[in-house]
UniProtKB/TrEMBL annotation:
Parts of the chain that traverse the membrane: 6-32, 147-169
GO BP terms, alphabetized: signal transduction
GO CC, any one term: membrane
One GO MF term: phosphatase activity
Pfam families: CHASE5, SpoIIE
Protein name: Serine phosphatase RsbU (Regulator of sigma subunit)
UniProt cross-references to SMART domains, sorted A to Z: HAMP (SM00304), PP2C_SIG (SM00331)
Top-rank lineage group of the source organism: Bacteria
Keywords, comma-separated and alphabetical: Hydrolase, Membrane, Transmembrane, Transmembrane helix
Organism for this UniProt entry: Desulfobotulus alkaliphilus
Length: 485
């Protein structure tokens, strides 16, 4: 590492450099730079004229827009440095001209092509002349100004030596002392700058100290920003979680002959799971359980889109297959690429003692018969946004079964079956069926028992995915109630 150049050596060297360079090199260097910059400006202006106006002029010549050509001519002439503009057609006839031609100017001619057709053909030209006389006059004036300034500098050179000490050391120390004394939350956004120095390229001890102060400032500011951002994100997630809870059912609907219970536990603040109840009349009820790909906010947005679309099609809530076909037409636009949604929809009819089930690639729904037999119900179907509409429609099939008093339906999301033990073993469908096989008298008891067994299996570690459970127990049948009446 190169050791920073000592300030004690820089003071006399700066004095000598000022005395020599200011008298011998500054004037020539600045004059040359001014001329180069002026020439680059002219070249840039000419290139911009080519890029901006040639195609437009070609189109106007082709369409005989002579008034517009004259307006463009005036516009080009008004560009600083342009002294003459002339536009001709392919017969060398002048269509428009502005300013006076000069033999000493910087001239540029542009050929205008008609781009229509297979072969481009010339239909005219644009000539532009930049004012070199004004450029040379300005450079001469600059040279005289520089020479006058250098003369004054030499007269004042005796005072410069004393000023250097203040310029190189004292004022920077005062700046750093003032900055550190006044540093607070507002000043953390403003870096310490030593006038005339480049903090990324340290040249002495002052730059190193300034870098250390700025590094400390950045570290403090980043820490405060991270805390503020974390607090803001946590607040937004809590608000989103509260909104989602409001949108989901708070209690099951009251339907005769049905005992309903549910549980909803998101893995994060917001969930990609969705469930809902749709009472159609006094004896029919629709139940939906869905799971969006991923977790967190993206999955929650997908689940909310499904909810909105289900609520927007109330006439199809008693026709599950038609409802799913409608959803598959709309959900891909709402969800975007790379996401999908699984869903089960149960339509319960207590009057006819039937349950109809449609599944879009969701986990099976289990029916436990009063006799103790457990039936996994999974009609064919693919997740939304995974297939084209025609293929989705062909694969979609509903399943209808009758039920009896004492039968139980259990629906869930894959957060239940895919939950892992500390040994990384999944809870699995076998674990679900084992718990379903145990006796239960109420839907709420089944839900609580399933949650307790899952917690014991995971050793009270919170699952990494959202877990939604819905249970339906069939009570006394309608025919039995009439008989008792």
């Amino acid at each position: 590492m190169v050791r920073p150049f000592s300030i004690s050596l820089r003071i006399p060297l700066c004095f000598l450099a000022i005395a020599l360079l200011m008298t011998l090199a500054s004037t020539i260097f600045m004059v040359v730079q001014d001329r180069r910059q002026a020439m680059r400006y002219m070249e840039k202006t000419l290139n911009q004229i080519d890029e901006t106006y040639t195609q437009a002029l070609a189109a106007l010549i082709w369409n005989m827009g002579f008034d517009e050509i004259r307006l463009i001519t005036d516009g080009i002439h008004n560009i600083p440095g342009v002294m003459h503009v002339i536009i001709k057609d392919d017969k060398e006839s002048i269509l428009a001209e502005k300013g006076k031609e000069s033999a000493t100017g910087l001239h540029r001619s542009y050929t205008l092509y008609q781009l229509e057709g297979l072969v481009s053909s010339s239909i005219g030209s644009l000539g532009v002349t930049m004012d070199l006389d004004a450029l040379n006059q300005n450079i001469r004036f600059t040279a005289l100004r520089i020479l006058a300034a250098r003369s004054i500098d030499l007269m004042l050179m005796g005072l410069v030596f004393l000023w250097i000490i203040h310029h190189l050391v004292t004022r920077h120390l005062k700046t750093m002392a003032s900055y550190t004394q006044q540093m607070n939350l507002d000043r953390l956004e403003t870096p310490l700058r030593l006038h005339g120095r480049k903090p990324d390229h340290p040249t002495d001890e002052l730059d190193i100290v300034a870098q250390a102060i700025n590094a400390m400032r950045i570290s403090i500011a980043e820490s405060l920003e991270q805390k503020a951002e974390k607090a803001r994100m946590e607040g937004e997630l809590r608000a989103a979680a509260n909104i989602q809870k409001v949108l989901l059912p708070t209690r099951p609907p009251a339907i005769k002959f049905l005992d309903l219970a549910f549980s909803f536990e998101p893995a994060l603040e917001v969930s990609g799971d969705y469930f809902d109840f749709f009472p159609l009349d006094e004896h029919r009820l629709g139940i939906v359980v869905a799971d969006a790909s991923g977790k967190g906010i993206p999955a929650a947005l997908i689940a909310n889109a499904a909810r909105v679309l289900l609520m927007a099609n109330p006439r199809q809530q008693d026709a599950p297959e038609a409802l799913f076909r409608t959803l598959n037409q709309t959900l891909p636009e709402a969800m975007g690429m790379g996401h999908f949604l699984t869903m089960s929809y149960l339509l319960l009819d207590t009057k006819r003692q039937e349950v109809s089930l449609v599944s879009a690639g969701h986990d099976p729904v289990y029916m436990k018969k009063a006799s103790g037999e457990i039936l996994p119900l999974k009609p064919p179907g693919y997740p939304f946004c995974r297939l084209h509409q025609k293929t989705f429609d062909l694969r979609l099939k509903s399943l209808t079964l009758s039920f009896e008093p004492g039968d139980t339906l259990f629906a869930y999301t894959d957060g239940l079956s895919e939950s892992l033990s500390p040994e990384q073993e999944p809870f699995g469908e076998q674990g679900i069926q084992k718990i379903l096989a145990e006796p239960h008298s109420r839907a709420a008891y089944l839900i609580q028992h399933m949650k307790k067994k899952l917690s014991d299996f995971c050793q009270h570690i919170k699952p990494s995915d959202d877990v939604t459970l819905v249970a339906v127990c069939f009570c006394k049948a309608p025919n039995e109630e009439k008989a008792n009446a």
